[in-house]
Write a structure and sequence with these properties.
The complex is a heterodimer of chains A (about 350) and B (about 375).
Chain A: H1 27-52, H2 69-77, E1 84-87, H3 92-97, H4 102-109, E2 133-136, H5 144-157, E3 163-168, H6 175-186, E4 191-197, E5 200-201, E6 204-205, H7 216-221, E7 225-230, H8 234-249, E8 255-260, H9 281-289, H10 292-302, H11 307-331
Parallel strand pairs in A: 1-2, 1-3, 3-4, 4-8, 7-8
Antiparallel strand pairs in A: 5-6
Helix pairs in contact in A: 1-2, 1-10, 1-11, 2-8, 4-11, 5-6
Chain B: E1 14-18, H1 19-33, E2 37-41, H2 57-60, E3 65-67, H3 72-84, E4 88-93, H4 103-110, H5 113-116, E5 126-131, H6 146-150, E6 156-158, H7 163-175, E7 180-185, H8 186-189, E8 192-196, E9 208-211, E10 216-220, H9 223-235, E11 242-246, E12 249-251, H10 256-265, E13 268-275, H11 280-291, E14 301-305, H12 324-335, H13 339-353
Parallel strand pairs in B: 2-3, 2-4, 4-5, 5-7, 6-7, 10-11, 10-13, 13-14
Antiparallel strand pairs in B: 1-8, 6-12, 9-11
Helix pairs in contact in B: 1-7, 3-4, 9-12, 9-13, 12-13
Classes of the chains: A alpha/beta (about 350), B alpha/beta (about 375).
Chain lengths: ~350, ~375
């Protein structure tokens, strides 16, 4: 059961930056700008976290999604507000893309009482049930069955809601993925399995962990519909999500989205780590050229939008929002030791 | 206000039924009254129907039965996810050992969702785990793993011993907004007792004194409580009055009644269905020695399974499971009873068993209790 409306934050952070004032654009351009703004905002937030991490105020592990923003934004923009999302240790982008409160997220990283869960989980457990980010679980694969169970409840109760679980390429090595996929397919549950293939499990490359076979064949073996798309192409991610979500809502069962992308920074922490020997600078630069934000910026510019002007307006507002959110986090009180004893039992 | 079946005197009507039937009644009552109650098990509606405990659920609540693929970890996670979305799943494993495959979801998601969410999520989930014993069940079908689950804050862990509790505590567990691990002993399934009809809830509030006595406190869990009762009955023949406490609720542990009992008797013997080392008895002994040290007249004794896996052959079973004979021996040591008196009680117990092999239940334990 989820109790609604008692979170620490009543106001939401809308993406009012999507449409620069006075700029007349078509619906598709407006949507493109909205997607761009969502990705840019997540990028700026994560870069701000990286820049401030050494201050030792965010005293918890952080797993940044820089470079992978199109997956989070494309999927979440393809959902309805009442759809549910379940995430992993690398959850910042999913939380933000689903509409989670930024001040509450940063306060959570700061370990503050005003954090989205009051400092109980830190960076790896972000949740905001009011916007449908139900849970983030840092045990690989751990949140997948939660999404399937939520979908089971919806299917039994006749709700046309969709449940989405995000996970990485290594998760398909886990038994719980296959157990969950089997059950979701068996009962045609409205679930989207979203696999962000960033090629690495911590430092270990995909080819050292899995045989040379397309990852999506694992889902196909469970008779699940699959979509293999460029995970740095936010439009492609969005389109696949909309198709898969519509199928799920229509009772046609789960889908598996394989999104090819790349983690720019280290597995855990704020730094680049191309020099330590597990991957090459060349590989990083290759993926850096495929930056999902730069690609959309280019596409929107080609469509006739003055991106310099649009982005400047966005960045100005976002920087102010981010600065205010960090200030909120820094100034918020720490929880007190007695809080640790609360909510052990319902 | 829960409806219940009342007799003319205002008491709920009771019948003598088996523990397994009591479980079935609890599931049926809860399923009929609340359509959000879901039942998940491997073979939930097959001819054996989880030892008969889920028989007939398909008639009363056909849309609430979820047949479970052999996916223990995912299915517990799926049950947690369904619970987060308003369902009250009751999931069953035919042996506690299968739950080892699901410990990740039990420990991380079920036990902590409420805590992590600062109270916004709750997980009204019941996980029924059956302990096997005897008839060659062997190393991986006869373990008693309650102390594993009792370790984790956020879980409730109960071991109903008597048919009345089997029904009432299970109803309470299903209505509880927390994840509740219910451990049922297969040999308790056969016991009988007076059980109220209808919606007869029994609170998950802690231990009960099931036999009063002044000389020694015997604390048992589940089937071990039945052995303790039998030992207490036998000890009465030589004038020893043992108090028997049925622990019922392992977590959250409410030790007050045990502390009071030992405060009166000055002696404590714990009887685990599992291994004595790191067992539930170890926790009880620790509570008592920490908080009632001055009341103790002798060192507490922990009984339980010896420190080796359980072999299959009946040739190796004698001495593996703690029984009334062993409990009498422990009480004899604590009270410094005359050896011949202890031997006479043990001989009477052995004789009453009538030469039954050690790997089948004693008819004594069928009750009614």
């Amino acid at each position: 059961m989820i109790r609604h409306g008692i979170g620490p934050h009543a106001a939401r952070d809308g993406n009012s930056d999507a449409m620069p004032a006075g700029l007349e654009v078509s619906n598709s351009k407006a949507r493109g700008l909205a997607l761009f703004a969502d990705m840019l905002r997540i990028r700026l937030i994560e870069e701000a976290i990286a820049a401030r991490y050494a201050e030792q105020e965010m005293r918890c592990p952080v797993h940044l999604s820089i470079g992978q923003e199109a997956a989070a934004v494309g999927v979440c923009q393809g959902l309805r507000p009442d759809d549910l999302v379940f995430s992993t240790h690398r959850c910042h982008a999913h939380y933000l893309a689903k509409g989670g409160s930024l001040p509450a997220m940063l306060a959570e990283l700061y370990g503050k009482a005003t954090g989205c869960i009051g400092g109980r989980g830190g960076s790896m457990h972000l949740q905001d049930p009011d916007v449908g980010l139900v849970a983030s679980v840092p045990i690989v694969g751990g949140s997948i069955p939660l999404a399937v169970g939520s979908a089971l409840a919806d299917a039994l109760d006749g709700r046309d809601r969709v449940s989405v679980c995000f996970f990485g390429d290594a998760t398909v090595e886990e038994g719980v993925f296959h157990e969950s996929a089997n059950f979701a397919a068996l009962r045609s549950l409205p679930v989207l399995f979203v696999c962000e293939n960033n090629l690495y499990s911590v430092y270990t490359p995909l080819h050292e962990r899995q045989p040379n076979r397309p990852i999506e064949t694992l889902a196909k073996a469970h008779s699940i519909a699959t979509y293999h798309v460029d995970g740095n192409d936010v439009d492609a991610v969005l389109a696949a999500t909309e198709t898969a979500a519509a199928a799920a809502r229509a009772g046609r069962g789960p889908s598996f989205l394989l999104l090819d992308t790349y983690r720019w920074r280290e597995h855990c922490g704020p730094n680049f780590d191309n020099h330590i020997g597990y991957r090459t600078e060349d590989e990083y630069q290759h993926w850096r050229l495929g930056d999902p934000i730069a690609r959309l910026r280019q596409a929107l510019a080609v469509s006739g939008i003055d991106m310099a002007e649009a982005e400047a307006a966005m960045t100005g507002r976002m920087d102010a929002e981010i600065e205010a959110a960090f200030r909120f986090a820094a100034q918020s009180p720490l929880p007190v030791p007695a809080d640790a004893w609360e909510h052990v039992y319902a | 206000m829960p409806e219940s079946v009342l007799s003319e005197t205002g008491e709920a009507k009771t019948r003598i039924i088996s523990y397994a039937d009591a479980v079935r009644e609890a599931l049926t009552e809860c399923g009929k009254r609340d359509r959000n109650v879901l039942f998940l098990a491997e073979g939930i509606a097959d001819p054996s129907s989880v030892y008969g405990t889920t028989k007939g659920l398909g008639t009363h609540c056909p849309d609430q039965l979820i047949e479970m693929p052999l996916s223990e970890n995912a299915l517990v996670g799926i049950a947690v996810g369904a619970a987060l979305s308003g369902k009250r799943p009751v999931i069953n494993f035919h042996r506690v050992e299968f739950a080892l495959l699901a410990v990740e979801q039990i420990v991380n998601n079920a036990a902590k969702a409420h805590y992590i969410s600062r109270g916004r999520h709750s997980v009204p989930l019941v996980i029924r785990l059956v302990i096997g014993r005897g008839w060659g069940q062997g190393p991986e079908h006869s373990q008693s793993l309650e102390s594993i689950f009792a370790h984790f804050p956020g879980l409730k862990v109960i071991m109903p011993t008597f048919p009345r509790d089997a029904k009432g505590m299970l109803i309470a567990a299903i209505r509880d907004d927390n994840p509740v691990i219910v451990i049922e002993h297969r040999w308790c399934h056969y016991s009988t007792g007076a059980v109220p009809e209808g919606d007869a809830i029994e609170a998950l509030d802690g231990p009960r004194v099931v036999r009063a006595g002044r000389d020694v406190t015997l604390v048992g869990t589940s089937y071990a409580t039945l052995e303790a009762l039998r030992a207490a009955d036998a000890l009465a023949a030589i004038g020893v009055e043992a108090e028997v406490v049925d622990l019922r609720v392992l977590r959250p542990l409410v030790p007050d009644l045990i502390l009071d009992s030992v405060g009166r008797t000055g002696r404590l013997v714990t009887i685990d269905t599992g291994w004595w080392r790191y067992g539930i008895g170890a926790e009880i002994v620790a509570e008592v020695t920490t908080r009632r040290f001055g009341a103790l007249k002798s060192a507490p004794i922990r009984l339980g399974m010896p420190e080796h896996p359980t072999p299959s052959s009946r040739g190796m079973v004698p001495g593996v499971y703690p029984d009334a004979v062993g409990i009498v021996a422990a009480v004899g040591r604590q009270m410094e009873l005359a050896e011949d008196a202890v031997a006479s009680v043990q001989a009477a117990l052995t004789q009453a068993r009538g030469g039954l092999p050690p790997d089948v239940p004693d008819p004594f334990f069928k009750g009614p209790f």
